[in-house]
Amino acid sequence: MSAEAQTSDIAAETEARHRAELDAQREEFHRELSRRALRIGELEEEMAELAREFEGSLSWRLTRPVRALGRLLARRRG
C-alpha cells in the first residue's frame, strides 16, 4: 500500500471516529433535552395545581374585589 493510500485511510478512520463521537454527543444531548423537557412539564403541572388550590381558597375569593380594584387603579395611573 502506498503512503498516500495509508494517509487517506488514516484520514478516513479519523473522520469516522470523529463522526461517531459527534453522533454520540448529539444523542446524549437529545436524551438530556428530553429529560429536561419532561421535568419542565412536571413542574408546570405542579405550578398549575398549586395555582388552582390557591385561587380556590377562601382568602383568594374574598380578596378578589380588592385585587380587581388595584388593577383598575393601576391602569388609570399609567
Give me the secondary-structure topology.
Elements: H1 3-55, H2 58-62, H3 64-77
Report on this model:
- The protein is rod-shaped and about 90 Å long.
- With about 80 residues, it is mainly α.
- It has helices at about 5-55, 60, 65-75.
Structure summarized in a few sentences:
The chain has 78 residues and is an all-alpha fold. The chain contains three helices and no strands. It has one domain.
Question: How many individual domains?
Answer: 1
**What percentage of residues falls in helices of 4 or more residues?**
over 70%
Spell out the helices and strands N to C.
HHH
Number of helices: 3
Which class do the helix and strand fractions yield? mainly alpha
The largest pleated sheet is described as: none
Distance between the termini: 82 Å
Percent range for β-strand residues: under 5%
Question: How many beta-strand elements?
Answer: 0
Q: Average pLDDT across residues?
A: 92
Rg, please? 30 Å
pLDDT under 50 segments (min length 5)? none
Shape: rod-shaped
